Amino acid sequence: MNTSVSVIYYTSKTLKNGNHPLMLRIIQNRQTKYISLGVNINPKFWDIKKNEPKRNCPNREAIQRLIIEKMKEYTDKIINLKVEKREFTAKSLIDKVNTPVKRMNVNDLFLQEIAQLKKEGRIRYAECHDYVYKSLLKFNKHLDIYFSEIDVQWLRRYETWLRGEGNSENTIGIKFRTLRTMYNIAIKEGYVKAEFYPFKDYKVSKLHENTPKRAIVKDNVIKVMNHKEPVSNSSYNQLAIDLFTFSYLMGGINFTDMARLTGENIMDEQLVYRRKKTRKLIHLPLHPKAMEIMNKYKSNNSYIFPILSSFHKTEQQKLNRIHKVIGKVNACLKTLGNELELDKKLTTYVARHSYATTLKRAGVSTSLICDALGHSSERVTQIYLDSFENTQLKAAMKNLL
Question: What pLDDT digit, counting tens, does each position of 250-274 carry?
Answer without folding.
Answer: 988 989 999 999 999 999 889 999 8
